[in-house]
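Worked Example 4.2. Consider the chain below.
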Amino acid sequence: MTATRALLGTGVVRHLRLRPARHGFEYPTYFLLLPLRTLRRTPDPALPRNRIGLIAFHDRDHGDGGGDCLAWIDDLLAREGIADADGEVWLHCYPRVLGYVFKPVSFWYCHRRDGSLAAIVAEVNNTFGERHCYLLHGDDLRFGRELRARKVFHVSPFCRVEGDYRFRFMRTDLGAPTHAPRTVARVDHHDANGPLLLTSVSGTLSPVTGAALRRAFFGTPLMTLGVIARIHWQALRLALKRVPFFSKPAPPDAFVTR
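Applying the procedure from the previous section yields the following structure tokens:
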């Protein structure tokens, strides 16, 4: 990767439930992909950070809610014994829109100095105000490879806390001059009977500029508020299809699942 600009992704989020009733949807979306070490050295004047903006990024929306989310992810990795994530840290997340945000999942791509992946952290929020992190690491960690983590955190009342997640992250070269870069993050939930829920968010990436942020905002002015509205609308549709409802269990004792 050679690009070190803050990037705006414009694309689609997709969900497909396979059983007991088939249920799928897709919505247009946009998101940020931020090179946090670069932005610490050279803030991007086009992206409002920790201040008011039509579209903005706030550090306290991540991790422990502190004012420096890069320091938080570095501390988390150090506590987990990962000492070589000293390259760029790219954060894929939803922005705040008109000061409001809900981030179902954010992805932290933590690189070594040579550009290889040292760790990926999937930071998950549920609608009960709880947060949990799945830490993916190991010698087989790379873009395009299927990665797995045991599901331990309650997200949807229509899925038990059981089985595992199958992650696959794909990204074209951010610095390639011949095509617009793209990113895809897939997260599939499998239980004892096989695939249950298939989800993805994908998009084409372009540099964050004032004009690009305005186009995104006016194209979908209530995007992050719409995330919450759509979660509840799809829950109603699942209930009408008589998909079983499961009560919320206690959150896991540990904040991080390896």
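The chain has a mean pLDDT of 95. The two ends are 26 Å apart (CA to CA). Compare this with Example 4.1 before moving on.
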